[in-house]
């Protein structure tokens, strides 16, 4: 917002009155204002490009929307929705993602947030004939190598079981149950998720974290 326009908005917020263009009488207004920005307003106040009084008048109930890199667990669900929209606009069947495709997307930082994610998906759909988009279908993203440490089935000291960190024990148990559910359902993730009592988006997230990938994976 230009600096010269800011005091006019402040006056409306403070007084609850507006003067219509071409008019000469003030009219009362009763409105609630929702303001959104991707700019750093505190820095702009310091440089004199945003009025402090307007900032404090607007900043009554701040709501911060975290960037996509801070909510990677949303990526599978967002991709499913975006791929359906892209398919509808293109008049073709919707695509899906393999587990390693989800992992590739989840490993990227997404400085452009959801708009960039949609752009990448549109590129992949345009450039690939695969109905299930895998990691190789996203050459536009930088390569990210993730080395997962091996998870032992048992930790022992001189043949005797040894206690393990709780997080590691939970990861081992989750991996076993997820693999069991996938095997029982023929790697159809929708059915496996129902068997595990979680959503398909949650299952995709766990597959990416645990590094579980199969060329036979179903939708």
Main traits of this protein?
single chain, 219 residues, mainly alpha, Helicase, Ruva Protein, domain 3, Arc Repressor Mutant, subunit A, 3 domains, two-stranded antiparallel sheet, two-stranded parallel ribbon, 6 strands
Topology at a glance:
Elements: H1 6-15, E1 17-18, E2 27-28, H2 41-47, H3 52-58, H4 75-90, E3 96-97, H5 99-106, H6 113-127, E4 132-133, E5 156-157, E6 160-161, H7 166-184, H8 189-196, H9 200-210
Parallel strand pairs: 3-4
Antiparallel strand pairs: 1-2, 5-6
Helix pairs in contact: 4-6, 5-9, 7-8, 8-9
Describe the structure.
The protein is mainly alpha-helical and 219 residues long. It has 3 domains: 6-58, no CATH class; 68-137, Helicase, Ruva Protein, domain 3; 156-210, Arc Repressor Mutant, subunit A, CATH 1.10.10. Helices cover 46% and strands 5% of the residues. It has 9 helices and 6 strands, in the order αββαααβααβββααα. The chain has helices at 6-15, 41-47, 52-58, 75-90, 99-106, 113-127, 166-184, 189-196, 200-210; strands spanning 17-18, 27-28, 96-97, 132-133, 156-157, 160-161. The strands form 3 sheets. A two-stranded antiparallel sheet has the order 1-2. The radius of gyration is 25 Å and the shape is elongated. The chain starts with 5 loop residues before the first helix and ends in a 9-residue tail after the last helix. The model is unreliable at 145-160 (pLDDT under 50).
